Protein 1
Amino acid sequence: MRKFLVIFFLIFLLSPFFAQEETPLPGISIQVNPAQQPRDLVATLEILVVLTVLTLAPSILILFTSFTRIIIVFSFVRNALGTRQVPPNQVLIGLALVLTFFIMQPTWNEINSTALQPYMDGKATYQEFFSNTTKVMRKFMINELTMHHNEDNVFVLANALNESVTNINDASDAVLTSAFVLGEVEIGFKMGILLYIPFIIIDMVVASILLSLGMIMIPPVLVSLPFKVLIFVLANGWESVIVSLVKSFSQ
């Protein structure tokens, strides 16, 4: 036991002499220098704008475009057919996106010519860019509200916020956007109900026939599904729905 204590004591005493030298670590410092040229500030603002747009892209797509009405109508059509997940959600959303880009193309071309290009050429500030973009989007939303006689949505929402609005053009951006979204939902439901009626009639006819034949155990939906799909295909249903959606917009 004493030998182990002596060896341990010697190792403890001699350890500083055999210790390796510490390797110095390089110092790292981060500094933020002010922009030396106006172009540096412009580039920084451009990056900020791009990141902001990418972050708000889903909300912008839903709230300020035709996407809401289109996807609601497509959901009604699928439920009326009774095909459950056919077409799948990915297909419906993709088709709604394609139609949204097609319908909104005139509006986005106007934004590009009146807001984006002047800003990229240095002829307009970023405040003017946002102001011109807002004007174009307000024009689109006002046209849709006026075309479908949904101006009362603006006055109802303005009254709820204790705002005095006598003309739809004088409404604030928040009120106008909310009224536009509400109007799109209303229009989507109206179109969906009109599309639902023929399929309900087919279900009722099939159910009456099965009941008269005494086939109570057979679900009417199971028998009417092939007939609804067949009639929808023969009548070029998807083409009619898409054309009606495109024509329902003012552009």
Protein 2
Amino acid sequence: MLLTLGAAWQLAAGADQTWDQVRPPAPFWAGLWLFGACAMDMLDGAVARVGNLKTAFGGILDSTMDRVSDIAIFGAIAIAFGRVENVTFQVLALLAMTNAVLISYIKARAEKELDDCSVGFWQRGERLVAVMLGCFLGHVATMVLILAVLPWTSVAGRLALCYRKLEGAKRQPNGGASGKAEMSLALKRRTWPHTLFAAAVAVTIIAVRIRPFNLSDLIR
């Protein structure tokens, strides 16, 4: 959590900076902080499992800190674009934050009723990789635009899965479509569609540098 807050501090100071400057931009340092945070995020669960230290509250605390981390990162980006009076990318950062929170919330709530709701490409790992790529390359605007526009498909996909499984169970004795059939519709990890889409997202963030724009200026 502390490492993520360090990344958020850097982003709030200059998420709009790129490698046009001589020195590394603020997002680059944020990427380093985030890399350390991701390493710790993987390590804490491994330590808990190896040492038989898993607890119910520990899982709740871990999930809560993940949500706080998402809010801190995109909130910091919104602050940075607010400092340069770019309302368009402020809103996009808040939309990206909303997508991140909703994707995780729907899964947590749905799994009170279903065995699994891990559908959709934009799980937390994929979102974090996109954020780090955008930070290291100084392409934060490109990353924000992608995370504001595309992850709603995972939000919609998870809601659709819940509707089909739960409402289908009321109408059909066997509970509607099988779990395997439902999961086959998702971009599951370690499958070629997932790998192909992940590569396309990565290439886009690497190759395309969007300059932050204001829709009001374009309209005028």
Protein 3
Amino acid sequence: MKTLTLVIIFSAATTTLAREAVFDTGEKPRLILKTGAGEGPAWHPAYGLFFSGDEGITLMTPAGNTSVFLPKAGSNGLLFDHEGRLLVCQPAYRRVIRLDAKSKHLQVLTDEYDGRHFNQPNDITVDSAGRIYFSDPRYGSREGMELLDSGGREIEGVYRIDADGSVTRIITHEVDRPNGILITPDNRYLFVADNNNSEGGARMLWRFALQADGTVDSASRKLILTGSPVGVRMAW
């Protein structure tokens, strides 16, 4: 799903974060691509900018040259983990994978939960322990949704993948349709963009307290932003 993107730059809340500036002083935004950009921009210092689009995952080198890195990827959110491997949400295939940027070796991290297929894994984030978190909304047709609660209600949740490969659902119905997600560098909070593009659907940004075990405190849910953007991307 292509979205309009709202970039939110958060001020550093601690002295640790304050030392890690996102931009050089005086740096201004500049247009690097007019067409073809879709979702999930992820930067690798050696290879360049990876992003999802209609052709698959495209790579733009630091010199500005573009080529299709992985055709027909059916991808959305992209992110490099702490070991420099590319994490990929593939809504078209209802799974999350990991790619080696050099060899293109592909590993499926998860494609089901409790024996049922995911909806459309959308966006992805990682905490300092290397645990992976991803959102799983459903856009378009509601047919074929397999994840239901005990009352038969469809679940569009947020999940965590641990180092041993186990998968845990950490958000079930606390967010209407989770899209963009991000964990703060100090692991204190998980931000989730609520993006239901149906008429009258939620357009909100929520913050949850993230526990040491990688779960969230549902009671800590705090509304940070509400409005009309259909997507939220956050940068530190």
Protein 4
Amino acid sequence: MKNLSINKLFNFKDKIIIISGSSGLLGTSFAQLFLNMGSIVVGIDKSKNKIKNDKFYFFNADISDEKIINKILKFVFKKFKKIDVIINNAGISYFKKFEKRTKKELNSTFNTNVVGTINICKNYLNFHKKLKLEKCSIINIGSIYGILSPDFNIYGKGDNINSEIYGATKAGIIQFTKYFSVYGAKYNINVNCLSPGGVLNSNKKQKTKFIKNYSKRVPLNRMANVDDFYTCLMFLASDKSSYVTGQNIVVDGGLSAW
């Protein structure tokens, strides 16, 4: 292999990338990653986005609203004629104790994390079939808490304890990934899941003690930085992963290994 540069391995110039939850920590970082590689990025989020780039199109929308999702996808196909990659990153959680969980919180988390993801995939599939598109890569963002329970010993007073409904929805996303990978295979739609471990987030003001306690649980002895997910994300989004589908790739520093 001669002159096999990263740009040749992962060529995303002028690729059309959809990212839900594009205003959050991971979503903003993922959008910037693909914009820096020359992609056209369409972001969807209920919160405002600060990205300023001529190749970034933003929709302030609730992904659990199927009519809105259909309109957004219709706009994208009318303007760009295709979608190369969909990153279903949107997700919310609540941090009250389990005993105090409300029906509203349960419904809200389920509607965003599961219904919203399915809305995007279902509506995309309808366009894919109607327009007779050739292929698409779909990456669902799961979580280690879709396969593990939080270790409650690492949390102190005031820390955001990961909720039961968040974990349940992420487990659902992992299963939906497997389902849709089989269902979409005949249409040449690859569907995979990237499940991150705990991420350092200055916006959430994580306490030093929590970071230390969490890191002790990780074989690599640290929390993740957002760029720790880039290579896996680019691989799953690229043509180099054309024989990979239905997989849940865990990027957690080894936490789930013990």
